[in-house]
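Task: sequence in, structure out. Protein: DUF2975 domain-containing protein.
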Amino acid sequence: MDNKKLAFLLKLFVVILAVLGLVFFGLCIPSLLHQLILFYHRTLNEELPLQLLSVTAAVILYIALILFWRICTRIGRNRSFCHENAEGLRWICKLALFDTALCLICCLYALFLNILHPVLMLGGLGIMALGGLIAVAAYTLAYLVTIAEQIQTENELMV
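Result:
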């Protein structure tokens, strides 16, 4: 598989994730949070922080997707092992960790309101685990891209 085809497939993956994120953060999460607040007889003022945390998580997701899109563009231009890709992956790592922390804050706030259903707690733990895995994978890839860039530079200097 050549770089252009790989970049195309990765960009297609980004588009699919963006659409799924729009459905998830635009429809599912707001409806679920509103139903929880109504079910537990809470006020709408108690719902607002949860909705704001959800919007913040969505913004972080789309920033990470934009960074990954840029990485895919550089891969398509045969610049897989460059400093910009390593930096982009490091930023994705930081964003994943921040998003994981936001999920923890959201779960703690729901626990404080006494609306943290066990299924939601398990879902939150799953999302936090996924965020941690994405952060570790992104940081590892950033490290490997940096090493590959150094090797590529050394090889270019020898030739």
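The chain has a mean pLDDT of 94.
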